Amino acid sequence: MTQVQAPIVVGAEKQLARPQRNRKPWRPARAPLHIALILIMAAWLIPTIGVLIASFRTAADTNTGGWWTALVPPWEFTFQNYDYVLNRAGFWASFLNSFVITIPATALVVMVAAFAAYAFAWMNFRGRNVLFVIFVGLLVVPLQVTLIPVLTLFRDFSIGGFQLNGTILAVWLAHTGYGLPFGVYLLRNYMGGLPKSVFEAAAVDGAGPATSFFRLALPMSIPGIAALTIFQFLWVWNDLLIALVYLGPVPENHPLSVTLANLTTNFGGNWQFLAAAAFVSMIIPIAVFFSLQRYFVRGMTAGAVKG
Amino acid sequence: MVQDFFDNRLLSAVVVVAAVPLVLVGYILLIEAIVKRLPRRVSRAARPWLWLAPALLFLGVFLVYPTLATILRSFKDRRGEAFSGGENYVWFFSRNDTLIALRNNVLWVVVLTALVVGLGLLVAVLVDHVKYENNVKSVVFLPMAISFVAAGVIWRLMYELDTRTGTLNAASTAIGGPRVAWLSTPPWNNLMLIIVGVWMMTGFAMVILSAGLKGIPVEMLEAARIDGATELQVFRQVIMPLLAPTVAVVSTTVIIFALKTFDIVYVMTNGNFGTEVIANRMYKELFTNGQQGRAAAVAVVLLAATVPVMVLNVKRFKQQEEVR
Fold first, then answer.
1. Are residues B49 and B184 in the same domain?
2. Cβ contact A198:A4 at 8 Å
3. Are A281 and A183 in contact (CB under 8 A)?
4. Of A203, B56, B89, B151, which has the fewest CB atoms closer than 10 Å, so is most exposed?
């Protein structure tokens, strides 16, 4: 195969390069602008900061005064609450379950969506547009509509005495089905924006569709794939409904979201434990989000904003 | 044996993470090897469908078939044995509590969409003028990353009744105001739940609107300013018309989210004190009351509410394709 120098263009990146606009140095007349923005930041941060501080306070402190009283000395913070939730409330197991559920469900969606997206973007076949319009329509179907039949399906289905209902496998499959319309939509838009000449040149050189896909389409779509991976990861990690419905009441398979939701009812007034538990559930998505924010934002805008 | 494999979850997860890509890549290589040997006419027709097959299988099993089955199910009785006509729908539209759920969803759609789009637009426009743009964006965007359950915990601390622990009540009493039962005073508690949604969704609206804003040529704005337009006039007469399609996209996304709202309500009030929404009602009918027929009808009502947005999306998509 010849070396193809692909111009790295595509959709959403176009808008990144633009001149700085209208950013004047600080002037008194602009004070309202800064005050408004600081108020907005405060409104968005205070709820989270409150819980973060509460998670490091002792039970006695929590019951006698709010988190804001911990801002002034004497500062007495403790890791006890984290110690408690991780060891005693079955939280550690849920933490692992969340990974076990999320990673395969994400890998499945990304791969299956990439195949379909490639077919939609670079193969000609009858009914292509109609079929893709159906995918676009399926994007908004509320998954509540699917719960009852899928539950029945899982209950009736068994291989060698292995019941699908209530297992992590069932959750993987369900998440894959629900995540696909968006995945195919996003990747098809991305792959469709790749330069045609690259694929034509490859075909002239005798490359089959499989070669074109693995050697060209896939590597060139890395930003789109990264965006989809983050989306799907966050969705599955943060999902409550699907886990709640398909895993049933048995706690051993529960991911963090379900365990945390159960704790909200059980811990009642024990704010310090609840706060620590909430933060444990937030650590991974926040880390993923901050390390890959660039792709996340790009994926979102690629789907929504016309280039 | 299969049971044992899945009981060791870590091992099975590792195997699956390695095996899923291998199997799928193997599938593609296999079908390509077969298709290559077929006559050219056949291979051209078969290839796309073989590439699409895994996706179509998943969509068929988990979205298309279940949706149709649920619609059928909604016309049957509790145990799904006999047709009961429109009984489930009569039940839905004649009960006080289900109608409250419906009303609350309308409230969610209207208030959440207005607040999210309005605030998102405000922040997007404001941050465009300052150097610390990215800091503000990160702060407003952060709640997008966390789960609704965690957000529920965060906001329960805000709304807590006890003035010693509840942030808002402490603030309210500190300035001489009353102690408020934020989550159990209808109809205002609905607004309190919607605010949690606003807190989570505004970042989404802001990011997309901000990207749209940056797509507007600077020269156009400068030209208006040179002609003597005030910032407000620039916003209303230059920015808004150009941003309208983006606002439409954001609005439809928020509307869909508002219709499907489940987690926030489930965690914070579980639909008590007049805060029920359709999705939570459906969950209760299904698992608390064991009324599958009614649960199906509730779900179909939800589906029907999303149809206009679906049609709109498809229309917009077709327009985009024509531009392409």
1. no
2. yes
3. no
4. A203
pLDDT of residue B310: 87
Evaluate if residue A270 carries a pLDDT over 90.
Answer: no
Which pLDDT does position A53 carry in this prediction?
A: 86
Residue B90 lies in a domain: no
Query: Which helix (H) or strand (E) element contains residue A162?
Result: strand A162-163
Query: Is A27 in the B-facing interface, judged by CB distances under 8 Å?
Result: no
Q: How many CA atoms lie within 13 A of A220 on its CB side?
A: 26
A168 to chain B: which residues are within 8 Å by CB? Answer: 6, 9, 12-13
B45 and B146 share one domain: no
pLDDT score, position A11? 36
Residue B139 pLDDT exceeds 70: yes
- Chain region(s) in chain A for CATH 1.10.3720.10: 91-304
User: If you average pLDDT over residues A278-304, what whole number do you get?
Assistant: 78
The interface predicted TM-score (ipTM) is 0.85
Q: How far apart are CA B17 and CA A105, in angstroms?
A: 9
**A3/chain B closest Cα distance in angstroms:** 23
Instruction: Tell me the C-alpha to C-alpha distance, in Å, between residue B306 and each of A124, B36, B69.
Output: 31, 43, 18
Is the CB of residue A280 less than 8 Å from the CB of residue A95? yes
| DSSP classification of residue A4 | P
Taking only residues 105 to 124 of chain A, the set having a beta carbon closer than 8 angstroms to any beta carbon of chain B reads 107-108, 111-113, 115-116, 118-120, 123-124
Domain annotation covers residue B225: yes
If one counts every other C-beta atom within 10 angstroms of the C-beta of residue A71, the result is 10
Do B310 and B161 share a structural domain?
yes
Q: What's the whole-number mean pLDDT along residues A245-266?
A: 84
Nearest to B262 by CA among A113, A125, A240: A240
Q: Give the residue numbers spanning the domain of B67.
A: 2-73
How far is residue B121's CA from residue B247's CA, in Å, rounded to a whole number?
A: 9
Instruction: List phi, psi (to 5°) of A8.
Output: -85, 85
CATH code: domain A91-304 is 1.10.3720.10
**Prediction pTM value:** 0.85
- Do B112 and B62 fall within a single domain? no
Percentage, residues of chain A above pLDDT 90 = 15
Asked if the model's pLDDT at residue A217 lies above 50, the reply is yes
Q: Is residue B79 part of a domain?
A: no
Rg over CA atoms, chain A: 24
**pLDDT > 90: percent of chain B:** 28
pLDDT at A58 over 90: no
**3-state SS assignment for residue B116:** helix
- Whether chain B has a CB inside 8 Å of the CB on A3: the answer is no
Whether A25 has its CB under 8 Å from any CB of chain B: the answer is no
- Residue B83 within any structural domain of the chain: no
Q: What is the CATH number of the domain that holds B265?
A: 1.10.3720.10
- Residue A16 predicted with pLDDT over 50: no
Q: Are residues B28 and B107 part of one domain?
A: no
pLDDT at position B123 over 50: yes
Is pLDDT of A155 > 60? Answer: yes
d(CA B97, CA B102): 9
No. of H helices and E strands in chain A? Answer: 15, 2
Question: How many domains, in total, are found in chain B?
Answer: 2
Q: Across the interface, do B199 and A145 touch by the CB < 8 Å criterion?
A: no
Q: Are residues B107 and B242 in the same domain?
A: yes
B216 lies within 8 A of chain A by CB: no
Token pair of A206 as six digits: 């005798």
